[in-house]
Specification:
heterodimer, A: 186 residues, mainly alpha, 2 domains, two-stranded antiparallel sheet, 69% helix, B: 186 residues, Rna Polymerase Sigma Factor, Chain: A, Arc Repressor Mutant, subunit A
C-alpha cells in the first residue's frame, strides 16, 4: 500500500469504516511510514479536539412550545370551520327577530338557542312599530349565556380578520372618493 | 418494556399526543444540538427544533418504518436547516465534486502555546462553521451523533462514497485549522 492510498483512506480508517483487510494494511503502513503516521496523528488530534464542543441541554420551553404548537393549529382549524356556521346562525336569528319573526318567538315566550335568547317582553313590541327598534336596544336585550365563550369567539374573529370588515368598507369608500378626486384633478 | 421509536410513531399516527411527547423528550436534545452546531445560533436552533418536531407530528402519517426513526428525523432536520440557510441566502449548496476547500488560516498557533479548553472550543466552533454546508452536516452527524457513513448518506440523499469524500476533506481542513492546539487544564 502506498502513501497516497493510505492518506486517502485515513479519514475512513479513523472512523472505523474501512473493511478489515484495508484496515490492517493501513495500520501496517502507518507503523512503517513516519510521514503518514505524523499526518494520522495530526488528524486524530484534531478530531479529538472537537470533543471540546460538548452537547448542551435544550431550553425547557422548547417542549412546551412544541406541544402548544401541535394543539394550536387543530383548535384554530376547528374554530375556522365552526365560525361561518355560527355566524350564519346568528345572522338568521337576528334577521328573523328584526323582521317580525320575533313576534312568533315572543308568543312562544322562551326562544332559546345554543348561545343567545331573548329574555324580555320589550324585545319585540306587539305594535307594528318594529322597524323603529333601535339596533343598540335590540343587542342590549340579548342575553349571553356564556360570556367567556363569547369573548373567546370575539378574539378568534379579530385574529382571522373577521371584525375589521367594517374598516375595509370604509377604506373602499375612501379609495372611491380618492379616485373621484383624481378624476377631477385630471 | 420501553416503547421503541417506531411503536411510538405508530401511536402518533393515530393522534396520540402522549406518545408524541415521549418522542420529543427522547430526541429533543440531539435535534437541538444538531441544529445548534449546524446553524451556530442558539435562537435559530431553538426555533428550528420546535418547528421540526411540529413537522414530525404533521408528517407522522407519511412515516413508514422502513428506515430507522432517527434517519427519518435527521432528514427532516437536515432539510429544515438547509432551507433555513437558503432563505438567509447564506448557503452555497454545491455538489461534492464542486466543493472547494476553504482558505486555510495563514498563521498557525504555536504548538507549545497551551490555550484554555474554552479557547480550543471556540476555535473548533469557528473551524466547523467555516466548512461548506454539506461537509459540515456530514461531519457533525459522524462526530457528534456517531452515525455510520451509510446512515449519513441516507440523510443527505447521496452515495456513501460522496460522504467518505466529504468527511475526508473535512478532516483534512480541520486538521490544518486545529493543528498544534494543546488545551491546558482550566
Amino acid at each position: 500500500m502506498n502513501c497516497k492510498v493510505v492518506q486517502d483512506d485515513l479519514a475512513t480508517y479513523l472512523d472505523g469504516e474501512l473493511d478489515m483487510p484495508a484496515s490492517v494494511a493501513v495500520k501496517e503502513h502507518l507503523e512503517a511510514c513516519g510521514q503518514c503516521r505524523a499526518l494520522y496523528v495530526r488528524r486524530l488530534e484534531a478530531w479529538e479536539l472537537m470533543d471540546t464542543w460538548k452537547d448542551v441541554s435544550p431550553p425547557g420551553r422548547i417542549r412546551k412550545n412544541i406541544i402548544a404548537g401541535i394543539k394550536g393549529p387543530g383548535r384554530s382549524a376547528w374554530v375556522l370551520r365552526a365560525l361561518p356556521v355560527a355566524a350564519a346562525l346568528l345572522l338568521v336569528i337576528g334577521l328573523s327577530i328584526y323582521f317580525g319573526g320575533g313576534k312568533a318567538l315572543h308568543k312562544k315566550g322562551d326562544f332559546a338557542g345554543p348561545i343567545i335568547r331573548s329574555n324580555t317582553d320589550s324585545l319585540v313590541p306587539e305594535s307594528q312599530d318594529n322597524a323603529s327598534i333601535n339596533e343598540d336596544e335590540l343587542i342590549s336585550h340579548l342575553h349571553i349565556f356564556q360570556e367567556d365563550d363569547f369573548l373567546e369567539t370575539l378574539d378568534e374573529l379579530v385574529k382571522i380578520d373577521y371584525l375589521p370588515l367594517i374598516d375595509e368598507v370604509a377604506d373602499s369608500d375612501r379609495s372611491r372618493q380618492r379616485s373621484s378626486l383624481d378624476l377631477v384633478v385630471t | 418494556m420501553e416503547d421503541t421509536d417506531i411503536s411510538l410513531m405508530g401511536l402518533v399516527r393515530k393522534g396520540d399526543e402522549r406518545a408524541f411527547e415521549l418522542l420529543v423528550l427522547r430526541h429533543q436534545r440531539p435535534v437541538y444540538n444538531l441544529a445548534l452546531r449546524f446553524l451556530n445560533d442558539p435562537a435559530e436552533a431553538e426555533d428550528a427544533t420546535q418547528e421540526i418536531f411540529i413537522r414530525v407530528f404533521k408528517a407522522a402519517g407519511s412515516y413508514t418504518p422502513d428506515a430507522k426513526f432517527t434517519t427519518w428525523l435527521y432528514t427532516i432536520v437536515r432539510n429544515f436547516c438547509f432551507n433555513l440557510l437558503r432563505s438567509r441566502k447564506q448557503a452555497v449548496i454545491v455538489s461534492v465534486e464542486e466543493e472547494s476547500l476553504p482558505e486555510l488560516p495563514a498563521v498557525h498557533v504555536d504548538p507549545v502555546d497551551r490555550i484554555s479548553r474554552e479557547q480550543v472550543r471556540e476555535k473548533v466552533i469557528h473551524a466547523v462553521s467555516r466548512l461548506p454546508e454539506n461537509m459540515r452536516m456530514a461531519v457533525i452527524l459522524s462526530k457528534y451523533h456517531g452515525l455510520q457513513y451509510d446512515e449519513i448518506a441516507g440523510i443527505m440523499g447521496c452515495t456513501v462514497n460522496a460522504i467518505k469524500l466529504r468527511i475526508h476533506r473535512a478532516k483534512a481542513i480541520l486538521a490544518e485549522e486545529l493543528s498544534g492546539l494543546k488545551p491546558g487544564q482550566d
